[in-house]
Specification:
The chain is of the alpha+beta class. The protein has two domains: 142 residues, Sandwich (Jelly Rolls), CATH 2.60.120; 108 residues, Arc Repressor Mutant, subunit A, CATH 1.10.10. The chain has a five-stranded antiparallel β-sheet with strand order 1-2-9-4-7. Strands 3-8-5-6 form a four-stranded antiparallel β-sheet. Helix 4 packs across helix 7.
Length: 269
């Protein structure tokens, strides 16, 4: 893994108002009178190349990071040496909150492509949040959402079949891209099939088989990592745990359903 480089804070490209992720950032919608303080509170803008590690599990926790561009993944390795991908992080997402409790990061954050992140010293953010109720609310919202997302993923991995997991993952990814201004139906997956499998608790062969079946039945089209969602209604049904009759898709016969959720989509028990 290569060294992470830093973009000078004085560089105009690092200003918040020049950031394409500013509407999804930690500071989105908070008091405008504190805008300059947010710029000053930022320690640095870090530039990462593919496979660069932003931080590693066990490193001392002293900062959180907001993705400015690109995509990162966070991974956790259990006592048996098995790696699990805990999340994929798009522009506007926060990374590093897992280190708050024990003052050490519990995951490793790695760039999936050329990416940049804004680094904020956590102590400085806490001090700033005492003067900005909006920022304080956003911080606690992010902590709550991270806990909620991990609980939902754990439920999904424990109670859903492969079709539900993959369908839920595609719908959730589409929703997240839509929120940052990209197309919600056509998008590029920056992660490998192996990464997706590791995240969803499946084998890479199963992920490839499900994606091929989705394509053959007209639910999606794909070319390498480019994905287009064609039949979102059926994908939604699958993510809910419904079994859809592939030979009579117009009828969409439903056999069973439940109400656990993965991201923005529900999955089966």
């Amino acid at each position: 893994m290569n060294m992470v480089s830093t973009i000078a804070r004085a560089d105009s490209r690092t200003r918040c108002n020049a950031c394409t992720a500013r509407h999804q950032c930690l500071f989105a919608g908070v008091e405008t009178q504190h805008a300059e303080s947010f710029n000053e509170a930022r320690e640095a803008v870090r530039l990462l190349h593919k496979r660069d590690a932003l931080f590693e599990s066990g490193d001392e926790f002293d900062a959180i990071y907001v993705v400015r561009s690109g995509t990162l993944k966070t991974t956790y390795t259990n006592e048996d040496g098995v790696e699990h991908i805990t999340g994929f992080h798009l522009p506007g997402n926060i990374i590093g909150l897992d280190g708050f409790a024990d003052k050490r990061y519990t995951t490793t954050a790695v760039a999936l492509e050329t990416s940049s992140v804004c680094e904020y010293r956590f102590e400085d953010l806490i001090a700033l949040s005492t003067r900005s109720p909006g920022l304080q609310a956003r911080l606690w919202h992010q902590v709550s959402r991270e806990i909620s997302n991990r609980e939902k993923l754990a439920l999904a991995l424990g109670h859903s079949h492969a079709d539900a997991r993959v369908a839920g993952f595609l719908l959730d990814t589409a929703s997240r891209y839509r929120k940052i201004g990209y197309s919600g139906n056509t998008f590029r997956l920056p992660m490998t099939r192996q990464d997706i499998a590791c995240h969803l608790g499946l084998t890479v062969e199963t992920v490839c088989r499900v994606l091929t079946r989705f394509q053959e039945t007209g639910l999606i089209t794909r070319e390498q990592r480019e994905i287009k969602l064609v039949d979102t209604d059926t994908l939604e049904s699958l993510s809910l745990g419904h079994k859809v009759d592939e030979t009579a898709r117009t009828g969409k016969r439903v056999q069973r359903s439940t109400n656990f959720s993965y991201g923005n989509a529900k999955v089966a028990a």
